[in-house]
Amino acid sequence: MIKKVLKFGGTSLGSIERIQHVANIIKKEHESGCQLIVIVSAMAGKTNELVDLSKKITKNFNKRELDVLLSSGEQVTCALIAGALNELNLKAKSWLNWQVPILTEGEHTNSRIINMSIDKINKFLKVGVAIIPGFQGVSKNGDITTIGRGGSDATAVAVAKIFSADVCEIYTDVDGVYSSDPNKIPVARKIDKISYDEMLELSSLGAKVMQPSAVQTAMMYDIPLEVRSTFTNRKGTKIFSQENIDYSKSVTGVAYSRDDAKITLLGVEDKPGVAANIFEPLNKAQINVDMVIQNISSDQKTTDITFTIKREDLLNTKLILEKNNSIKYVDITYNDKVAKVSIVGAGMVSTPGVTYKMFRGLADESINILAISTSEIKLSVIIDEKNTLRAVKKLHTIFELD
Ligand code: ASP
Ligand code: MG
Fold first, then answer.
1. Rounded CA gap, 187 and 179, in Å?
2. Distance from Cα 155 to the centre of ligand 2, integer Å
């Protein structure tokens, strides 16, 4: 018998009407003869509301208690869904994190699921639908823990793995993964099939359909995923390993984000150890450096180094660089009005000329490239923020994604 994990996000559960609608989806799936484990998020906005409440007490709210507070959002939806299913004459039962139990390790508010017990739920699946709250678990010593914001995707994938489900379906408010942001690029198309690697790149690069770490886990254990809409009947996007996909196009999607900042150190001494001296304190402060470019020095004595970081780390990076007297430079410039535009596609590996085509396209739009980075299936450039959508549209067109 087919076993499915169905995960419903906060928007899908945002009101009583929606919860009843979700119950109907679950009922139909169950009638088609599948065993179902349902993972729920809190109602849309609920977790933020709870965070705000804690802040009214203190900004440094005790993390153990914060986990008790935040986990309550999913307790509500678990019970409401189970109740709504019972109303439809379907047997359903909720298990809270400590009842399963879902074991976690790591610190409060940022734990990881390591295991869960399956016997009693597996037994129940023969007669009804099991409902499990996303985003939480219980530690070795019995404390409630949460696994990081947006964590119910991770719960769904972990449950799919531990229960050996055939598929993990992520129900959300969009009907799949698109070749670019459909809100800004009207010609963007829904992708029917995509590989884990591509999905991972796209979600890390700004396509906010699924939590990247959950995609990573699914890839590691080869768990087929499907992202689909709660609000339409249409087929979603299937995510699985590359062997299952025929690549007719070199590029699968164009992503963009406006989360980066660029820093340039001008006239840095060109001698061994300088780059290490620059990046060591950043590393210590856990600031993630993304792209790095070093120019060839013309005078053999000095060079320029450009790198990018997350925009939210800019202030901290500035402080660290300016008080670092082990590096000598002539000037330093900061630019947080930049965007990162990326093309992603597993088909790139076997298609020559993709890099040239991207640069040519941007040149034709007179868009200046400020930094470049590549991986096997991705090519990213940093450009002026004001050119973002023009660049995305152009690339979407020239790679035949419209
Ligand atoms: N309710 C949690 C959050 O808002 C988990 C989730 O929705 O995935 O972060
Ligand atoms: Mg959510």
1. 9
2. 12
